[in-house]
């Protein structure tokens, strides 16, 4: 399967011929971009999707294409309010899903924030770590009892993990100046490490987890970037690629960006379990001291290190106040 798809593959191409009728899926962050397209493609192939969003009014408008897919007789869709920056909100959402009593075959942890100004979640954690990692850590683990044997968890990481690993002793930048890019990188490394440890803990019953990098896409995730920053980044990546004898950098479409999530959701578990995926294939491990550019593929070794993953899990349980 890894040889069939690539960086330009779309969601519908990845799911072609796959019938998801009867499957129940939870997708976080279905108020824009990748989350909406992920939900639409799943519904179009027969799945029942629960989409979560912090702003229900915004999500209601944004998910019109998802409801259109449902109206065509494929799957079905419902929205659920959840703010990942609030443990209370996460618990309310998981309680609502659990109360329905249905299994959850697939969870796609798609929601996130990037390069935000310094701020704290409602529970006192740096906003990017608290939203991107801790909110999802609590959410997915509280839904774990609903995941049947053979289920799947997909967590959106990012090539931004290369900015650095999580700092378990200083999660809130209390001992160094806040750096929004470093904070983002730490949170994305945490997302990848969470997938590694979740997979280790659940693979004995066929439940597999993977982290995915969607690629370079122009979405509202970059709303905190300075004017012109994305354009400058694209120019730099193009220069790097051309110097390597490759074509210039091209932004992915939303459908191309969401494809790797769905590829990892449907690929054989032994192929993707505990791994970092990009461009609809498993990414190569890159040594921590090997120079990388924004145009490079690969995952830093620290982001999939099993011992780091175990240590992060223990601290994350302490931070959220629950053991799993």
CATH topology call: Rossmann fold
Overall mean pLDDT score? 92
Shape: globular
What gap, in angstroms, lies between the N and C termini? Answer: 33 Å
Count of individual helical segments: 12
**CATH superfamily assignment?**
NAD(P)-binding Rossmann-like Domain
The level 1 CATH classification is Alpha Beta
- Which residues sit in consecutive blocks of at least 5 with pLDDT less than 50? none
Strand arrangement within the widest β-sheet reads 3-2-1-4-5-6-7-8
Shape-level CATH architecture = 3-Layer(aba) Sandwich
Helix content range:
40-55%
Task: List its salient traits.
single chain; 324 residues; alpha/beta; Rossmann fold; eight-stranded mixed sheet; two-stranded parallel ribbon; 12 helices; 10 strands; 40% helix; globular
Fold topology:
Blueprint: H1 11-14, E1 24-28, H2 33-44, E2 48-53, H3 56-62, H4 64-71, E3 76-81, H5 87-100, E4 106-109, H6 127-143, E5 152-156, H7 180-202, E6 208-213, H8 229-243, H9 254-257, H10 259-266, H11 269-272, E7 276-278, E8 281-282, E9 285-286, E10 299-300, H12 306-320
Parallel strand pairs: 1-2, 1-4, 2-3, 4-5, 5-6, 6-7, 9-10
Antiparallel strand pairs: 7-8
């Amino acid at each position: 399967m890894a040889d069939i798809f690539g960086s330009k593959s779309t969601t519908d191409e990845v799911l072609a011929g796959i019938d998801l009728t009867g499957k129940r899926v939870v997708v976080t962050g279905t108020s824009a971009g990748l989350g909406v397209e992920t939900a639409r493609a799943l519904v179009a192939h027969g799945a029942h999707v629960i989409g979560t969003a912090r702003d229900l009014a915004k999500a209601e408008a944004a998910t019109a294409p998802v409801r259109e897919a449902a109206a065509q007789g494929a799957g079905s869709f419902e929205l659920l309010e959840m703010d990942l920056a609030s443990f209370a909100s996460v618990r309310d959402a998981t309680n609502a899903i659990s109360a329905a009593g249905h299994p959850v075959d697939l969870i796609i942890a798609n929601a996130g924030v990037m390069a935000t100004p310094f701020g704290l979640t409602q529970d006192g954690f740096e906003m990017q770590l608290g939203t991107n990692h801790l909110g999802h850590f609590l959410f997915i683990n509280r839904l774990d009892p609903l995941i049947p044997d053979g289920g799947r968890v997909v967590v959106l990481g990012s090539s931004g993990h290369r900015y650095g690993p999580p700092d378990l002793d200083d999660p809130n930048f209390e001992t160094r100046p806040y750096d929004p890019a470093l904070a983002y990188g730490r949170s994305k490394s945490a997302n990848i490490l969470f997938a590694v440890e979740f997979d280790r803990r659940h693979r004995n019953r066929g439940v597999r987890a993977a982290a995915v990098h969607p690629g370079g896409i122009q979405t509202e995730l970059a709303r905190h970037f300075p004017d012109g920053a994305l354009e400058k980044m694209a120019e730099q990546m193009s220069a790097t690629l051309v110097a390597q004898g490759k074509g210039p950098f091209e932004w992915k479409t939303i459908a191309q960006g969401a494809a790797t999530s769905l590829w990892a959701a449907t690929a054989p578990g032994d192929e993707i379990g505990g791994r970092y995926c990009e461009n609809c294939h498993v990414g190569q491990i890159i040594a921590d001291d090997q120079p990388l550019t924004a145009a490079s593929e690969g995952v830093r070794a620290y982001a999939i290190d099993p011992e780091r993953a175990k240590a992060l899990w223990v601290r994350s349980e302490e931070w959220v106040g629950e053991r799993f």
